[in-house]
Design brief:
Residues 45-78 are annotated as: Disordered. This protein has 176 residues and is mainly alpha-helical. The protein is 37% helix and 5% strand. The protein has helices at residues 28-44, 47-50, 68-72, 85-99, 113-116, 156-175, and strands at residues 3-6, 19-22.
Length: 176
């Protein structure tokens, strides 16, 4: 036997139908939770979010405190009189204070020298002229040839080479 129950007013929740059909053994609380979770799911995934042809890129290649899109929404980003990165950061900071925004998208960026000098230059990617711990190529492999590993004092390959030589010696002793 099915009965009609009015769970929530249609005016307060437009996605929920005003009248639903439920089994008498299902409590109204359980049914209300089910309908509410369906509503939350619909609100979370709007049509525009599910459109596969709509692109919304949010890059943060340089700024780590905000996206490039957030920085582009400030008028100071397009001011041709400001060409110094330090002044650009100050102008963006002042604009954020005037707008009442808590986060400045250029706070952790290359433009803010106070923050940039504490960051490791090798973390972000390739740095021209930076000293590296060792060469990128450890050896050259030719077809049908033995692999030659360059000797770098104190490298991890030196330890591997010693272990390999000991294993070869032990193998020769076992075969004799």
């Amino acid at each position: 036997m099915l009965r009609n129950t009015k769970l929530l007013s249609a005016r307060s929740h437009p996605f929920i139908p005003a009248i639903t059909t439920s089994h008498p053994s299902v409590s109204s609380y359980q049914h209300r939770c089910l309908v509410t979770s369906q509503t939350i799911h619909k609100e979370r995934h709007l049509e525009s979010d599910l459109d596969r042809h709509l692109l919304r890129p949010e890059h943060n290649e340089n700024s780590k405190s905000g996206t490039d899109d957030e920085a582009a929404h400030h008028w100071s980003s397009y001011d041709p009189t400001i060409t110094d990165p330090d002044l650009e950061v100050l102008a963006c900071e002042e604009e954020c204070e005037l707008d009442g925004e808590l986060d400045d998208p250029l706070y952790v960026s290359p433009g803010n020298r106070e923050v940039s000098r504490f960051l490791d230059p090798m973390v972000g990617g390739a740095v021209h002229g930076a000293t590296r711990p060792g060469p990128s190529g450890r050896g050259w492999t030719r077809k049908h040839k033995e692999v030659v590993i360059k000797k770098i004092p104190g490298s991890q390959f030196e330890r591997y080479d010693k272990i390999l030589q000991e294993l070869r010696k032990a193998e020769k002793r076992a075969t004799k």
